[in-house]
Design brief:
Length: 98
C-alpha cells in the first residue's frame, strides 16, 4: 500500500512539474521575441489553410492557436527532459549499488 501511494505521488509530481515547467518555458519563449516565432506562425497558418475552416482564419485566432501549440509543445519538451533525467539518475544509482 505504501509503495502504491508513493508511486501515485511520484506520477502526480511528474505531471505537475511537466505542466508548470512547460508553462514557464512557453512564457519564456513567447516573451523573448516581440511576437510569435515565425516558424510557429507559418506552421499554424498552413494548418489552418489545410483544415479549410474559414471561421478561424482571423489573425487573433491564429495567434491564440499558436500560443496554445507553443504551451503544449513546451510541456511535452519538459516532460521528455524530466523523463530522460529520471532514467539517467535511476540508472546511475542502480549501477553504483552493484
Amino acid at each position: 500500500m505504501k509503495g502504491r501511494l508513493q508511486r501515485i505521488a511520484c506520477v502526480l509530481a511528474y505531471i505537475s512539474a511537466s505542466l508548470i515547467g512547460g508553462w514557464f518555458l512557453g512564457a519564456f519563449i513567447s516573451h523573448t521575441s516581440l511576437w510569435i516565432p515565425q516558424w510557429l506562425w507559418n506552421a499554424m497558418r498552413a494548418a489552418v489553410r489545410a483544415s479549410d475552416i474559414v471561421a478561424i482564419y482571423d489573425e487573433d485566432d491564429i495567434e491564440t492557436l499558436c500560443l496554445f501549440a507553443l504551451t503544449i509543445t513546451s510541456c511535452g519538451a519538459v516532460a521528455l527532459s524530466l523523463g530522460v533525467a529520471w532514467f539517467a539518475v535511476t540508472r546511475y544509482f542502480r549501477m553504483r549499488r552493484v
